[in-house]
Amino acid sequence: xxxxxxxxxxxxxxxxxxxxxxxxxxxxxxxxxxxxxxxxxxxxxxxxxxxxxxxxxxxxxxxxxxxxxxxxxxxxxxxxxxxxxxxxxxxxxxxxxxxxxxxxxxxxxxxxxxxxxxxxxxxxxxxxxxxxxxxxxxxxxxxxxxxxxxxxxxxxxxxxxxxxxxxxxxxxxxxxxxxxxxxxxxxx
Length: 188
Description:
By secondary structure, this protein is an alpha/beta fold. The protein has a single domain (about 5-185), classed as Ribonuclease H-like superfamily/Ribonuclease H (Nucleotidyltransferase, domain 5, 2-Layer Sandwich). The protein has seven helices and five strands. The protein has helices at about 15-25, 25-30, 75-85, 100-105, 105-120, 155-160, 165-180, and strands at about 40-45, 55-60, 90-95, 130, 145. A five-stranded mixed sheet has the order 3-2-1-4-5. Helix 4 (about 100-105) crosses helix 5. The longest helix is centred in the C-terminal third of the chain and has 16 residues, at about 165-180. It is globular, with a radius of gyration of 17 Å.
C-alpha cells in the first residue's frame, strides 16, 4: 500500500496534494491499526430497471490524481480514470450479477454477491475491506462498514470509477439485445 507520508512527493499542486491526503483518511487509520492490504468495494446498478449489478473492489498502489466521486466526473474523465485504475500496479476485481440472478436472489442479496465476486476476483485478498453503507456478511476478512464514505475515503472514489463505466457498457449492450426502443427504458 502507498506510504501515506509521501503525499508531498506526488506530482500535483499543493491543493490537490491536500485533497488526496484527506481522501486517504480511512486507509491511513487502517494502516495505523496494522492493516496493510486495505481495499474498498462499491456497486453500481442497484437502481436501474434493467441490467446487471456490477461491483468493483479496489486496492490502490498509490493515489491517483484527479479521482473524485464518479457523479462529479464527466464520462470522458471516468473512462480515463477507469483505464488508469486497471493498470497492473493497482489491484481491481469486478463482480457482476446478471438480471436472472437478481430476479432469483432479490436485489440486496444480488448486491452482496456482486461485491463478494469483486473481492474474490482481486489478485490478492485484502486484509481489511471498506464497504460503503453495507454490513457485507460472510467475508473472509474484517469488514468496516463506513457511512458516507465518500467524505472520508479516497478509495471510495476509485471504486465508483470502476463499476460505472463497466455497468454503462453492459447496460448499452443489454439494451440493444433485449429492450425494444418503444419501451423507452433506454436511449443509446
